């Protein structure tokens, strides 16, 4: 257990250093590369932030494995794996829209055991250790108590691949008329943390990667939230879709999302 507190401490230091670097370089990007399509960007700052996080891991836990968005996998002798998104919200970052974060999730034998998400614009550090609750800076956080979807504030995101985005748009249309409002801010890890601290009541997205959800889905669970895939079945960070709520509106969202899919199949 002590090991997990040390891991969370190092992850927090690493995420804060990466976040400060991102703020320092905001507006001074020197390189933008398109990864899998015109809209899927990576900047020199994403890579440098990732190197900052990896430096801390290697200095403190040289035998841990790493799965990082920009540099891929490296396998160590111990059973811990660090899953890194150096900048979640790169499109926002490239445009100077202040909604991005560094996300670091830690797995033991493939199971989520700790996670931190740092938003350097607001200096907000969301964190959790399995079984120990979720925190925003030093304050314990909990999901909201909204129980009727029509009073809820929801969030979503859309995949860079427009063919996958189409499904999300159908869901968006239906949920927009079911909820009080829906937001699309462009950083899935922050969206999930906002459900964890009650700013949002639910979040869904299709087309995600493990580094988007590895830290924040644990933070949300530890804050009392519920996470599944869209049809209500068990979620794993390697699943590409997520439905994450305060728990109270989960069934209402699953019913709506199942219906959108049934309607699509009938058309
Ligand atoms: C993206 C953001 C965005 C979500 C995309 C992700 P990136 O991550 O989380 O909100 O809609 O699906 O890929 O590329 O900025 O790290
Ligand atoms: Ca991401
Ligand atoms: Ca990223």
Automatic annotation (TrEMBL):
TM helices/strands, residue ranges: none
One Gene Ontology term of the molecular function aspect: metal ion binding
Residues reported to bind Mg(2+): 69, 85, 87-88, 212
Alphabetical list of Pfam families matching this protein: Inositol_P (PF00459)
Keyword tags: Hydrolase, Magnesium, Metal-binding
CDD domains: IMPase
EC number: 3.1.3.25
GO biological process: inositol metabolic process; phosphatidylinositol phosphate biosynthetic process; signal transduction
Gene3D superfamilies: 3.40.190.80, Fructose-1,6-Bisphosphatase, subunit A, domain 1 (3.30.540.10)
Cofactors (names): Mg(2+)
Catalyzed reactions per annotation: a myo-inositol phosphate + H2O = myo-inositol + phosphate
Cited InterPro entries: IMPase, Inositol_monoP_metal-BS, Inositol_monophosphatase-like, Inositol_monophosphatase_CS
Enzyme type, top EC level: hydrolase
Family under the similarity heading: Belongs to the inositol monophosphatase superfamily.
Protein name: Inositol-1-monophosphatase
Organism in which the protein naturally occurs: Candidatus Omnitrophus magneticus
Origin organism lineage: Bacteria, Pseudomonadati, Candidatus Omnitrophota, Candidatus Omnitrophus
